C-alpha cells in the first residue's frame, strides 16, 4: 500500500486538462456504448480506443495495478458464476450448439458459451480503463462541481467529494497504525499463520474504524458550524469553464455512442452472431 489507491494523480496530459463535467459525461456515454451492445466487433473497437486513451493520460499501470488486480479477480469470479448458474446461456442466445468438452449433464463447454462470456469480459475490460481514468484524473473538488453542474444537488456532490478525499486518508491511517503495531511486535508478514494474521489485522482495523468515526464527527461539526446546506445553491472554487477540447471530446464520444447503437440495433438484435 505504498501507492495510494483511487486517489487523484496530478499529471500533464490532454485527459487531465478536460473539465470534470466533460469527463463525467464522457464516462456515462462510454458506459452506455459498452453496456448496451453485445457486438464483439464494437466491443473490440471500444477496448482499443480505451487503451489508447489510457496511454494518452500518462497514467502508469503500476499506479492502478492493485485496484486493477482486484477488479480482474472479481471478473474471474463473475465468469465462473455465470457458467455455474447458466452454462447454456450462449446456446439460447445464438441458437446453435458446438460442444467442445462434455463435462456431464448440462455443464457441457460450448463454443457459444465461451463466445458469450468473452463478450461479457470485453464489456468489463472496455469500461474499467475509462472508470479508472475518470477517478484518478479528476480532482475530488472538481468532480463535485461537475456533479452539481449536471443537476446533482450540491449537498450530494460535496458528500461524494469528501468520500473520494477520504480514501487516501484511510490508506495513510492504515499504514501508520500498521507500522505502530508492527513496532510493538505485531507480525503481519507471511511468516505467521493465516488465522494469526487475520487476528492481527483486527487489531489494526478497530483503531482505524475509531479514528474514522472521530474524523467524521469533526468534519460534520465543522460543516454545521459553517452553515453548510443553508442555501439552495453555492459556488465552486475548482469549477472550470468549457474549452474547445471539452466540446471536441464530448462530440467524439457522442459519435461513438451513436455509431455503437446504430450498428448494434440495425437488425433489431444486440447480439452479433458469428455462428449463422
How would you explain this protein's 3D organization?
Helix 2 runs antiparallel to helix 6 (111-136), helix 7 (140-149) packs antiparallel against helix 8 (154-183) and helix 8 crosses helix 9 (194-225). The chain has a two-stranded antiparallel ribbon with strand order 1-2. It has helices spanning 14-17, 20-35, 40-56, 65-85, 89-94, 111-136, 140-149, 154-183, 194-225, 244-264, and strands at 99-101, 109-110. Strand 1 and strand 2 form a beta hairpin. With 276 residues, it is mainly alpha-helical. It folds into two domains: 1-139 and 245-276, no CATH class; 152-237, no CATH class. Helix content is 66%, strand content 2%. The longest helix has 32 residues, at 194-225. It is built from ten helices and two strands, in the order αααααββααααα. Its main location: membrane. Keywords: Membrane, Transmembrane, Transmembrane helix. The chain crosses the membrane at residues 27-54, 66-85, 114-136, 247-266. InterPro entries: ABC/ECF_trnsptr_transmembrane. It is found in: Membrane.
Spatial shape: globular
Number of helices: 10
SSE-based structural type:
mainly alpha
Strand content: under 5%
Report the mean per-residue pLDDT as an integer.
Answer: 82
Helix content bin: 55-70%
Largest sheet: 2 strands, antiparallel
Number of domains: 2
Amino acid at each position: 500500500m505504498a501507492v495510494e489507491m483511487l486517489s487523484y494523480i496530478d499529471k500533464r496530459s490532454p485527459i487531465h486538462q478536460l473539465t470534470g463535467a466533460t469527463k463525467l459525461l464522457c464516462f456515462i456515454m462510454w458506459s452506455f456504448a459498452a453496456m448496451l451492445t453485445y457486438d464483439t466487433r464494437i466491443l473490440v473497437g471500444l477496448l482499443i480506443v480505451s487503451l489508447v486513451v489510457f496511454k494518452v493520460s500518462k497514467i502508469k499501470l503500476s499506479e492502478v495495478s492493485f485496484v486493477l488486480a482486484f477488479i480482474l479477480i472479481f471478473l474471474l469470479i463473475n465468469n465462473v458464476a455465470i457458467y455455474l448458474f447458466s452454462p447454456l446461456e450462449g446456446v439460447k442466445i445464438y441458437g446453435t450448439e458446438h460442444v467442445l468438452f462434455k463435462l456431464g449433464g448440462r455443464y457441457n463447454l460450448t463454443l457459444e458459451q465461451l463466445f458469450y462470456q468473452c463478450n461479457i469480459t470485453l464489456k468489463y475490460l472496455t469500461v474499467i480503463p475509462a472508470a479508472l481514468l475518470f477517478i484518478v484524473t479528476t480532482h475530488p473538488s472538481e468532480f463535485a462541481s461537475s456533479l452539481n453542474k449536471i443537476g446533482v444537488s450540491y449537498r450530494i456532490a460535496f458528500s461524494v467529494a469528501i468520500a473520494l478525499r477520504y480514501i487516501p486518508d484511510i490508506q495513510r491511517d492504515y499504514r501508520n497504525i500498521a507500522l505502530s503495531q508492527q513496532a510493538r511486535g505485531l507480525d503481519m508478514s507471511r511468516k505467521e499463520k493465516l488465522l494469526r494474521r487475520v487476528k492481527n489485522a483486527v487489531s489494526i482495523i478497530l483503531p482505524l474504524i475509531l479514528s474514522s468515526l472521530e474524523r467524521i464527527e469533526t468534519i460534520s461539526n465543522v460543516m454545521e458550524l459553517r452553515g453548510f446546506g443553508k442555501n439552495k445553491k453555492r459556488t465552486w472554487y475548482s469549477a472550470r469553464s468549457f474549452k474547445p477540447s471539452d466540446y471536441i471530446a464530448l462530440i467524439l464520444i457522442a459519435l461513438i455512442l451513436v455509431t455503437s447503437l446504430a450498428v448494434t440495433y440495425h437488425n433489431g438484435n444486440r447480439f452479433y452472431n458469428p455462428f449463422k
